[in-house]
Amino acid sequence: MNKWIVALTVMLPTLIEIIDTSVVNVALDHIRGSLSAGIDESTWSITSYLVSNAVIIPMTGWLSKFFGRKRYLIMSIVLFTISSFLCGSAWNLQSLVFFRVLQGIGGGALQPISQSILLETFPARQHGMAMAIFGMGIMFGPIIGPLLGGWITDNWSWHWIFFINVPIGILSVILTLFFIKDPPYMKRMKMKIDYWGLALLSLGLGCLQIVLDKGQQEDWFSSSFIIWLSGISLTSLIGFVFIELVAEHPVVNLRAFKNLTFSTGNIVMFLGFFNLFASIVLLPIYLQTLMGYTAYLAGLVLGPGGIATMIALPIAGNLVNRVNPKFLLAFGLIVNAYATYLMSNFNLHAGFNTIIWPRIVLGVGMGFFFIPLTTMTMSGIKREDMANASAIYNLLRNLGGSFGVAFVTTMLSRRAQFHQNHLVENLTPFDSAYQMFSGQSSQFLQYRGADDFTSGFGGLGMIYRELLRQASMMAFNDAFFLVCIIMVCVLPFVIVMKREKPGTVPGMH
Question: Would you list the domain boundaries of the chain?
Fold first, then answer.
Protein backbone atom coordinates (compact mmCIF):
# COMPACT_ATOMS: atom_id res chain seq x y z
CA MET A 1 0.00 0.00 0.00
CA ASN A 2 1.39 3.42 -0.94
CA LYS A 3 2.34 5.12 2.32
CA TRP A 4 1.55 8.61 0.95
CA ILE A 5 -2.04 7.61 0.10
CA VAL A 6 -2.38 6.19 3.62
CA ALA A 7 -1.00 9.45 5.05
CA LEU A 8 -3.54 11.50 3.08
CA THR A 9 -6.36 9.17 4.12
CA VAL A 10 -5.72 9.44 7.86
CA MET A 11 -4.73 13.12 7.94
CA LEU A 12 -7.77 14.43 6.05
CA PRO A 13 -10.34 13.67 8.80
CA THR A 14 -7.78 14.48 11.51
CA LEU A 15 -7.25 17.97 10.10
CA ILE A 16 -10.95 18.86 10.03
CA GLU A 17 -11.34 17.48 13.57
CA ILE A 18 -8.52 19.70 14.85
CA ILE A 19 -9.91 22.71 12.98
CA ASP A 20 -13.25 22.12 14.73
CA THR A 21 -11.65 22.65 18.15
CA SER A 22 -11.12 26.34 17.32
CA VAL A 23 -13.43 27.15 14.40
CA VAL A 24 -16.43 27.85 16.66
CA ASN A 25 -14.60 30.48 18.75
CA VAL A 26 -14.86 33.26 16.15
CA ALA A 27 -18.47 32.39 15.27
CA LEU A 28 -19.64 32.36 18.90
CA ASP A 29 -21.29 35.79 18.77
CA HIS A 30 -23.26 34.85 15.65
CA ILE A 31 -24.32 31.53 17.22
CA ARG A 32 -25.38 33.30 20.42
CA GLY A 33 -27.54 35.78 18.52
CA SER A 34 -29.06 33.19 16.22
CA LEU A 35 -30.00 30.80 19.04
CA SER A 36 -30.99 33.53 21.55
CA ALA A 37 -28.42 32.42 24.12
CA GLY A 38 -26.38 34.32 26.71
CA ILE A 39 -22.61 34.74 26.46
CA ASP A 40 -21.88 32.28 29.28
CA GLU A 41 -24.37 29.74 27.92
CA SER A 42 -22.99 29.90 24.38
CA THR A 43 -19.47 28.95 25.49
CA TRP A 44 -20.81 25.48 26.35
CA SER A 45 -20.82 24.81 22.59
CA ILE A 46 -17.01 24.92 22.87
CA THR A 47 -16.64 23.28 26.29
CA SER A 48 -18.89 20.33 25.43
CA TYR A 49 -16.73 19.45 22.41
CA LEU A 50 -13.49 19.72 24.39
CA VAL A 51 -14.84 17.57 27.23
CA SER A 52 -16.04 14.69 25.04
CA ASN A 53 -12.85 14.93 22.98
CA ALA A 54 -10.67 14.69 26.09
CA VAL A 55 -12.61 11.68 27.40
CA ILE A 56 -12.36 9.68 24.16
CA ILE A 57 -8.68 10.27 23.29
CA PRO A 58 -7.14 8.05 26.02
CA MET A 59 -9.66 5.26 25.32
CA THR A 60 -8.71 5.06 21.65
CA GLY A 61 -6.21 2.21 21.95
CA TRP A 62 -8.66 0.03 23.88
CA LEU A 63 -11.61 0.88 21.60
CA SER A 64 -9.49 0.10 18.51
CA LYS A 65 -8.88 -3.41 19.80
CA PHE A 66 -12.45 -3.85 20.99
CA PHE A 67 -14.05 -2.92 17.65
CA GLY A 68 -11.08 -3.45 15.30
CA ARG A 69 -9.13 -0.34 14.33
CA LYS A 70 -10.39 0.14 10.77
CA ARG A 71 -13.99 -0.42 11.84
CA TYR A 72 -13.58 1.99 14.76
CA LEU A 73 -11.93 4.61 12.53
CA ILE A 74 -14.85 4.46 10.07
CA MET A 75 -17.37 4.60 12.93
CA SER A 76 -15.62 7.69 14.30
CA ILE A 77 -15.56 9.51 10.95
CA VAL A 78 -19.22 8.65 10.31
CA LEU A 79 -20.26 9.89 13.76
CA PHE A 80 -18.18 13.06 13.33
CA THR A 81 -19.72 13.73 9.89
CA ILE A 82 -23.34 13.10 10.92
CA SER A 83 -22.98 15.15 14.11
CA SER A 84 -21.37 17.99 12.09
CA PHE A 85 -24.50 18.10 9.90
CA LEU A 86 -26.69 18.04 13.03
CA CYS A 87 -24.65 20.87 14.62
CA GLY A 88 -25.26 23.01 11.53
CA SER A 89 -28.97 22.17 11.74
CA ALA A 90 -29.27 22.88 15.49
CA TRP A 91 -32.52 24.68 16.41
CA ASN A 92 -31.50 25.86 19.91
CA LEU A 93 -28.45 25.96 22.16
CA GLN A 94 -29.32 22.73 23.97
CA SER A 95 -29.44 20.77 20.72
CA LEU A 96 -26.15 22.35 19.55
CA VAL A 97 -24.38 21.40 22.80
CA PHE A 98 -25.70 17.82 22.57
CA PHE A 99 -24.57 17.45 18.95
CA ARG A 100 -21.18 18.98 19.82
CA VAL A 101 -20.76 16.24 22.45
CA LEU A 102 -21.41 13.63 19.76
CA GLN A 103 -19.01 15.42 17.43
CA GLY A 104 -16.30 15.33 20.10
CA ILE A 105 -16.89 11.61 20.69
CA GLY A 106 -16.54 10.95 16.97
CA GLY A 107 -13.51 13.20 16.53
CA GLY A 108 -11.55 12.26 19.65
CA ALA A 109 -10.16 9.03 18.22
CA LEU A 110 -8.93 10.53 14.94
CA GLN A 111 -5.68 12.07 16.21
CA PRO A 112 -4.22 9.05 18.06
CA ILE A 113 -5.36 6.57 15.38
CA SER A 114 -3.79 8.72 12.64
CA GLN A 115 -0.51 8.94 14.54
CA SER A 116 -0.34 5.20 15.21
CA ILE A 117 -1.19 4.30 11.58
CA LEU A 118 1.48 6.69 10.27
CA LEU A 119 4.14 5.25 12.60
CA GLU A 120 3.22 1.72 11.52
CA THR A 121 3.03 2.51 7.79
CA PHE A 122 6.35 4.36 7.53
CA PRO A 123 9.53 2.37 8.31
CA ALA A 124 11.45 3.30 11.48
CA ARG A 125 14.04 5.31 9.51
CA GLN A 126 11.21 7.52 8.16
CA HIS A 127 9.37 8.10 11.43
CA GLY A 128 10.65 11.67 11.45
CA MET A 129 8.94 12.35 8.14
CA ALA A 130 5.77 10.55 9.29
CA MET A 131 5.61 12.80 12.34
CA ALA A 132 6.29 15.84 10.14
CA ILE A 133 3.09 15.00 8.21
CA PHE A 134 1.16 14.50 11.45
CA GLY A 135 2.68 17.67 12.93
CA MET A 136 1.58 19.75 9.95
CA GLY A 137 -2.00 18.73 10.66
CA ILE A 138 -2.03 19.40 14.40
CA MET A 139 -0.09 22.68 14.08
CA PHE A 140 -1.98 23.94 11.03
CA GLY A 141 -5.46 23.21 12.41
CA PRO A 142 -5.52 25.69 15.34
CA ILE A 143 -4.17 28.45 13.06
CA ILE A 144 -6.44 27.98 10.05
CA GLY A 145 -9.51 27.28 12.23
CA PRO A 146 -10.20 30.88 13.38
CA LEU A 147 -9.41 32.32 9.92
CA LEU A 148 -11.65 29.79 8.15
CA GLY A 149 -14.41 30.18 10.73
CA GLY A 150 -14.33 33.96 10.44
CA TRP A 151 -14.44 33.93 6.63
CA ILE A 152 -17.27 31.36 6.44
CA THR A 153 -19.32 33.15 9.11
CA ASP A 154 -18.92 36.55 7.45
CA ASN A 155 -19.59 35.36 3.90
CA TRP A 156 -22.12 32.56 4.44
CA SER A 157 -23.40 31.81 7.96
CA TRP A 158 -22.21 30.03 11.10
CA HIS A 159 -24.12 26.88 10.05
CA TRP A 160 -21.58 26.32 7.26
CA ILE A 161 -18.62 25.94 9.64
CA PHE A 162 -20.24 22.56 10.39
CA PHE A 163 -21.78 21.72 7.01
CA ILE A 164 -18.37 22.03 5.30
CA ASN A 165 -17.24 18.91 7.21
CA VAL A 166 -19.86 16.70 5.54
CA PRO A 167 -18.33 16.23 2.04
CA ILE A 168 -14.84 15.91 3.55
CA GLY A 169 -16.14 13.28 5.98
CA ILE A 170 -17.80 11.29 3.17
CA LEU A 171 -14.57 11.38 1.14
CA SER A 172 -12.60 10.25 4.23
CA VAL A 173 -14.88 7.24 4.74
CA ILE A 174 -14.45 6.18 1.10
CA LEU A 175 -10.65 6.52 1.28
CA THR A 176 -10.53 4.58 4.56
CA LEU A 177 -12.59 1.74 3.13
CA PHE A 178 -10.19 1.34 0.20
CA PHE A 179 -6.77 2.19 1.59
CA ILE A 180 -6.62 1.37 5.32
CA LYS A 181 -5.92 -2.24 6.32
CA ASP A 182 -5.81 -3.68 9.82
CA PRO A 183 -2.64 -5.61 10.75
CA PRO A 184 -3.34 -8.90 12.57
CA TYR A 185 -2.71 -7.40 16.02
CA MET A 186 -5.32 -4.63 15.42
CA LYS A 187 -8.16 -6.97 14.42
CA ARG A 188 -11.23 -7.07 16.63
CA MET A 189 -10.55 -8.82 19.95
CA LYS A 190 -12.88 -10.28 22.53
CA MET A 191 -12.10 -8.45 25.75
CA LYS A 192 -13.71 -8.11 29.13
CA ILE A 193 -15.04 -4.55 29.36
CA ASP A 194 -13.36 -2.46 32.04
CA TYR A 195 -16.53 -0.70 33.22
CA TRP A 196 -14.92 0.93 36.27
CA GLY A 197 -12.02 2.22 34.19
CA LEU A 198 -14.37 3.67 31.57
CA ALA A 199 -16.56 5.35 34.18
CA LEU A 200 -13.75 6.82 36.28
CA LEU A 201 -11.81 8.04 33.24
CA SER A 202 -14.89 9.71 31.73
CA LEU A 203 -15.84 11.36 35.01
CA GLY A 204 -12.30 12.42 35.91
CA LEU A 205 -11.29 13.90 32.56
CA GLY A 206 -14.73 15.39 31.88
CA CYS A 207 -14.73 17.30 35.18
CA LEU A 208 -11.08 18.32 34.72
CA GLN A 209 -11.74 19.80 31.28
CA ILE A 210 -14.73 21.78 32.59
CA VAL A 211 -12.59 23.09 35.47
CA LEU A 212 -9.86 24.23 33.08
CA ASP A 213 -12.32 25.81 30.65
CA LYS A 214 -14.56 27.54 33.21
CA GLY A 215 -12.14 28.11 36.11
CA GLN A 216 -11.13 31.69 35.34
CA GLN A 217 -14.70 32.67 34.50
CA GLU A 218 -15.90 31.26 37.87
CA ASP A 219 -12.93 32.75 39.81
CA TRP A 220 -11.47 29.31 40.44
CA PHE A 221 -11.74 28.05 44.01
CA SER A 222 -13.93 30.92 45.12
CA SER A 223 -16.66 28.95 43.35
CA SER A 224 -18.24 25.89 44.99
CA PHE A 225 -18.96 24.62 41.45
CA ILE A 226 -15.23 24.50 40.66
CA ILE A 227 -14.33 23.04 44.08
CA TRP A 228 -16.81 20.18 43.66
CA LEU A 229 -15.72 19.41 40.10
CA SER A 230 -12.04 19.50 41.11
CA GLY A 231 -12.69 17.09 43.99
CA ILE A 232 -14.64 14.71 41.76
CA SER A 233 -11.94 14.87 39.08
CA LEU A 234 -9.07 14.22 41.50
CA THR A 235 -10.84 11.35 43.25
CA SER A 236 -11.91 9.76 39.95
CA LEU A 237 -8.45 9.97 38.36
CA ILE A 238 -6.70 8.53 41.44
CA GLY A 239 -9.22 5.69 41.48
CA PHE A 240 -8.73 5.21 37.74
CA VAL A 241 -4.95 4.75 38.14
CA PHE A 242 -5.42 2.06 40.80
CA ILE A 243 -8.09 0.25 38.75
CA GLU A 244 -6.01 0.28 35.55
CA LEU A 245 -2.91 -1.16 37.22
CA VAL A 246 -4.82 -4.33 38.20
CA ALA A 247 -7.32 -4.63 35.31
CA GLU A 248 -6.86 -7.56 32.90
CA HIS A 249 -7.74 -5.42 29.85
CA PRO A 250 -7.30 -1.81 31.03
CA VAL A 251 -8.89 1.02 29.05
CA VAL A 252 -5.50 2.77 29.18
CA ASN A 253 -2.41 0.64 29.69
CA LEU A 254 -0.29 2.68 32.11
CA ARG A 255 2.61 0.19 32.14
CA ALA A 256 4.21 2.10 29.27
CA PHE A 257 5.20 4.74 31.84
CA LYS A 258 7.76 2.31 33.27
CA ASN A 259 10.03 3.41 30.43
CA LEU A 260 11.89 6.62 31.37
CA THR A 261 12.08 8.03 27.85
CA PHE A 262 8.36 7.53 27.22
CA SER A 263 7.42 9.08 30.57
CA THR A 264 9.78 12.03 30.14
CA GLY A 265 8.63 12.58 26.55
CA ASN A 266 5.02 12.91 27.70
CA ILE A 267 6.02 15.47 30.34
CA VAL A 268 7.96 17.49 27.76
CA MET A 269 5.05 17.29 25.29
CA PHE A 270 2.64 18.52 28.00
CA LEU A 271 4.84 21.51 28.82
CA GLY A 272 5.66 22.23 25.16
CA PHE A 273 2.00 22.55 24.19
CA PHE A 274 1.38 24.44 27.43
CA ASN A 275 3.80 27.01 25.95
CA LEU A 276 2.36 26.92 22.42
CA PHE A 277 -1.30 27.35 23.35
CA ALA A 278 -0.49 29.92 26.03
CA SER A 279 1.36 31.99 23.42
CA ILE A 280 -1.18 31.72 20.60
CA VAL A 281 -4.02 32.59 23.00
CA LEU A 282 -2.23 35.58 24.56
CA LEU A 283 -1.15 37.06 21.24
CA PRO A 284 -4.58 37.71 19.67
CA ILE A 285 -5.97 38.94 23.02
CA TYR A 286 -3.11 41.46 23.21
CA LEU A 287 -3.63 42.54 19.61
CA GLN A 288 -7.40 42.97 19.87
CA THR A 289 -7.73 44.48 23.35
CA LEU A 290 -4.71 46.79 23.40
CA MET A 291 -3.57 47.33 19.81
CA GLY A 292 -6.94 47.73 18.08
CA TYR A 293 -6.55 44.82 15.65
CA THR A 294 -9.64 43.18 14.18
CA ALA A 295 -10.13 39.42 14.63
CA TYR A 296 -9.10 38.88 11.02
CA LEU A 297 -5.88 40.93 11.36
CA ALA A 298 -5.05 39.13 14.61
CA GLY A 299 -5.47 35.85 12.72
CA LEU A 300 -3.10 37.10 10.03
CA VAL A 301 -0.42 37.63 12.69
CA LEU A 302 -0.71 33.95 13.66
CA GLY A 303 -0.60 32.79 10.03
CA PRO A 304 3.11 33.31 9.19
CA GLY A 305 4.07 31.38 12.33
CA GLY A 306 2.04 28.45 11.03
CA ILE A 307 3.81 28.69 7.67
CA ALA A 308 7.17 28.71 9.49
CA THR A 309 6.14 25.51 11.27
CA MET A 310 5.13 23.91 7.96
CA ILE A 311 8.62 24.66 6.62
CA ALA A 312 10.46 23.59 9.80
CA LEU A 313 8.66 20.25 10.24
CA PRO A 314 9.96 18.46 7.09
CA ILE A 315 13.46 19.89 7.68
CA ALA A 316 13.44 18.48 11.22
CA GLY A 317 11.97 15.22 9.87
CA ASN A 318 14.95 14.84 7.52
CA LEU A 319 17.52 15.78 10.16
CA VAL A 320 16.20 13.51 12.91
CA ASN A 321 17.98 10.44 11.47
CA ARG A 322 21.22 12.32 10.79
CA VAL A 323 21.60 14.34 13.99
CA ASN A 324 21.11 13.23 17.60
CA PRO A 325 17.40 13.99 18.25
CA LYS A 326 18.29 15.34 21.70
CA PHE A 327 20.24 18.20 20.09
CA LEU A 328 17.34 19.04 17.77
CA LEU A 329 14.89 18.95 20.70
CA ALA A 330 17.11 21.20 22.83
CA PHE A 331 17.41 23.61 19.90
CA GLY A 332 13.61 23.67 19.51
CA LEU A 333 13.10 24.38 23.22
CA ILE A 334 15.66 27.19 23.22
CA VAL A 335 14.09 28.79 20.13
CA ASN A 336 10.62 28.57 21.74
CA ALA A 337 11.91 30.16 24.94
CA TYR A 338 13.57 32.94 22.93
CA ALA A 339 10.35 33.59 20.98
CA THR A 340 8.27 33.99 24.15
CA TYR A 341 11.00 36.18 25.64
CA LEU A 342 10.68 38.47 22.60
CA MET A 343 6.93 38.55 23.18
CA SER A 344 7.49 39.57 26.80
CA ASN A 345 9.08 42.79 25.45
CA PHE A 346 6.02 43.91 23.49
CA ASN A 347 4.69 47.40 24.24
CA LEU A 348 1.76 49.62 23.31
CA HIS A 349 3.61 51.05 20.32
CA ALA A 350 4.76 47.77 18.72
CA GLY A 351 4.51 47.68 14.93
CA PHE A 352 3.15 44.81 12.83
CA ASN A 353 6.66 43.52 11.94
CA THR A 354 7.76 43.68 15.58
CA ILE A 355 4.80 41.50 16.56
CA ILE A 356 4.91 39.03 13.70
CA TRP A 357 8.63 38.16 14.00
CA PRO A 358 8.45 36.37 17.42
CA ARG A 359 5.48 34.36 16.14
CA ILE A 360 7.57 33.18 13.17
CA VAL A 361 10.45 32.28 15.52
CA LEU A 362 8.00 30.30 17.69
CA GLY A 363 6.75 28.49 14.57
CA VAL A 364 10.28 27.38 13.70
CA GLY A 365 10.90 26.28 17.28
CA MET A 366 7.74 24.17 17.40
CA GLY A 367 8.79 22.35 14.23
CA PHE A 368 12.12 21.39 15.76
CA PHE A 369 10.42 20.58 19.07
CA PHE A 370 7.68 18.25 17.85
CA ILE A 371 9.59 15.92 15.49
CA PRO A 372 12.55 14.83 17.67
CA LEU A 373 10.38 14.64 20.78
CA THR A 374 7.77 12.39 19.17
CA THR A 375 10.43 10.26 17.45
CA MET A 376 12.26 9.59 20.73
CA THR A 377 9.12 9.18 22.85
CA MET A 378 7.56 6.60 20.52
CA SER A 379 10.78 4.90 19.44
CA GLY A 380 10.57 1.99 21.86
CA ILE A 381 6.86 1.24 21.40
CA LYS A 382 5.88 -2.11 19.90
CA ARG A 383 3.61 -1.85 16.89
CA GLU A 384 0.77 -3.64 18.65
CA ASP A 385 0.96 -1.10 21.51
CA MET A 386 1.26 1.97 19.28
CA ALA A 387 -2.46 2.88 19.51
CA ASN A 388 -2.37 2.89 23.32
CA ALA A 389 0.85 4.93 23.42
CA SER A 390 -0.46 7.41 20.84
CA ALA A 391 -3.65 7.85 22.85
CA ILE A 392 -1.68 8.69 26.01
CA TYR A 393 0.65 11.01 24.10
CA ASN A 394 -2.21 12.91 22.41
CA LEU A 395 -4.09 13.21 25.70
CA LEU A 396 -1.06 14.82 27.38
CA ARG A 397 -0.64 17.14 24.40
CA ASN A 398 -4.25 18.30 24.56
CA LEU A 399 -4.21 18.65 28.34
CA GLY A 400 -1.00 20.68 28.09
CA GLY A 401 -2.79 23.11 25.79
CA SER A 402 -5.82 23.33 28.12
CA PHE A 403 -3.65 23.91 31.20
CA GLY A 404 -1.62 26.53 29.29
CA VAL A 405 -4.73 28.50 28.30
CA ALA A 406 -6.18 28.31 31.82
CA PHE A 407 -2.85 29.38 33.38
CA VAL A 408 -2.16 32.41 31.18
CA THR A 409 -5.72 33.77 31.21
CA THR A 410 -5.73 33.58 35.01
CA MET A 411 -2.24 35.08 35.24
CA LEU A 412 -3.26 37.88 32.88
CA SER A 413 -6.23 38.82 35.05
CA ARG A 414 -4.33 38.64 38.37
CA ARG A 415 -1.25 40.52 37.16
CA ALA A 416 -3.38 43.25 35.52
CA GLN A 417 -5.07 43.81 38.88
CA PHE A 418 -1.70 43.87 40.65
CA HIS A 419 -0.19 46.42 38.25
CA GLN A 420 -3.36 48.52 38.30
CA ASN A 421 -3.18 48.82 42.10
CA HIS A 422 0.53 49.60 41.96
CA LEU A 423 0.12 52.30 39.31
CA VAL A 424 -2.82 53.92 41.13
CA GLU A 425 -0.70 54.21 44.28
CA ASN A 426 1.81 56.30 42.35
CA LEU A 427 -0.75 58.39 40.48
CA THR A 428 -0.90 61.73 42.32
CA PRO A 429 -1.61 65.33 41.23
CA PHE A 430 1.95 66.17 42.26
CA ASP A 431 3.50 63.83 39.70
CA SER A 432 4.89 65.75 36.71
CA ALA A 433 3.80 63.10 34.19
CA TYR A 434 0.27 63.21 35.66
CA GLN A 435 0.15 67.00 35.39
CA MET A 436 1.37 66.95 31.80
CA PHE A 437 -1.06 64.24 30.62
CA SER A 438 -3.97 65.80 32.56
CA GLY A 439 -3.33 69.16 30.89
CA GLN A 440 -3.07 67.61 27.44
CA SER A 441 -6.29 65.60 27.96
CA SER A 442 -8.25 68.66 29.13
CA GLN A 443 -6.99 70.74 26.21
CA PHE A 444 -8.01 67.99 23.77
CA LEU A 445 -11.51 67.80 25.21
CA GLN A 446 -11.88 71.59 25.18
CA TYR A 447 -10.79 71.54 21.56
CA ARG A 448 -13.60 69.03 20.93
CA GLY A 449 -16.09 71.50 22.47
CA ALA A 450 -16.30 70.43 26.15
CA ASP A 451 -16.60 73.05 28.92
CA ASP A 452 -14.00 73.43 31.70
CA PHE A 453 -15.90 71.25 34.19
CA THR A 454 -16.49 68.41 31.71
CA SER A 455 -12.97 68.56 30.34
CA GLY A 456 -11.50 68.31 33.83
CA PHE A 457 -13.36 65.11 34.66
CA GLY A 458 -12.97 63.84 31.10
CA GLY A 459 -9.23 64.33 31.42
CA LEU A 460 -9.21 62.17 34.55
CA GLY A 461 -11.18 59.51 32.68
CA MET A 462 -8.63 59.49 29.87
CA ILE A 463 -5.81 59.17 32.41
CA TYR A 464 -7.53 56.21 34.08
CA ARG A 465 -8.14 54.49 30.73
CA GLU A 466 -4.46 54.92 29.90
CA LEU A 467 -3.53 53.53 33.32
CA LEU A 468 -5.65 50.42 32.63
CA ARG A 469 -3.93 49.96 29.24
CA GLN A 470 -0.50 50.25 30.86
CA ALA A 471 -1.46 47.77 33.60
CA SER A 472 -2.77 45.31 31.00
CA MET A 473 0.39 45.65 28.92
CA MET A 474 2.57 44.91 31.95
CA ALA A 475 0.38 41.87 32.70
CA PHE A 476 0.93 40.57 29.16
CA ASN A 477 4.69 41.07 29.60
CA ASP A 478 4.60 39.08 32.86
CA ALA A 479 2.54 36.26 31.34
CA PHE A 480 4.83 35.87 28.31
CA PHE A 481 7.91 35.96 30.53
CA LEU A 482 6.54 33.24 32.82
CA VAL A 483 5.86 31.03 29.81
CA CYS A 484 9.46 31.64 28.70
CA ILE A 485 10.78 30.55 32.12
CA ILE A 486 8.66 27.38 32.05
CA MET A 487 10.11 26.54 28.62
CA VAL A 488 13.69 26.97 29.90
CA CYS A 489 12.90 24.69 32.86
CA VAL A 490 11.97 21.89 30.42
CA LEU A 491 15.55 21.67 29.07
CA PRO A 492 16.93 19.38 31.85
CA PHE A 493 14.33 16.73 30.91
CA VAL A 494 16.01 16.35 27.51
CA ILE A 495 19.14 14.93 29.14
CA VAL A 496 17.42 11.72 30.31
CA MET A 497 15.72 11.02 26.96
CA LYS A 498 17.20 8.76 24.29
CA ARG A 499 16.19 6.97 21.12
CA GLU A 500 15.07 3.51 22.22
CA LYS A 501 15.32 0.28 20.27
CA PRO A 502 11.90 -0.72 18.90
CA GLY A 503 9.85 -2.87 21.28
CA THR A 504 11.67 -1.93 24.50
CA VAL A 505 8.78 -0.05 26.13
CA PRO A 506 6.71 -2.36 28.35
CA GLY A 507 3.60 -3.62 26.60
CA MET A 508 0.33 -5.12 27.68
CA HIS A 509 1.82 -7.94 29.69
Answer: 1-191, 193-248, 256-413+477-503, 418-472
Contact 504, 475 (CB under 8 A): no
Report the C-alpha gap between 49 and 101 in whole angstroms.
5
| Other C-beta atoms lying within 10 Å of the C-beta of residue 180 | 19
- For the domain 256-413+477-503, what is the CATH code? 1.20.1250.20
Query: CB of 232 within 8 A of CB of 203?
Result: yes
CB 49 within 8 A of CB 132: no
Q: How far apart are CA 60 and CA 324, in angstroms?
A: 31
Per CATH, the number for 1-191 is 1.20.1250.20
Q: What is the pLDDT of residues 314-372, one digit of tens each?
A: 888 888 878 888 888 999 999 999 999 998 888 888 887 888 888 889 888 888 888 88
Cα–Cα distance, 313 to 374 (Å, whole number): 12
Per this entry, what is the length of the chain? 509
How much of the chain is in helix, strand and coil states, percent to nearest 5? Answer: 80, 0, 20
Please give the model's pTM, rounded to 2 decimal places.
0.76
CB 24 within 8 Å of CB 49? yes
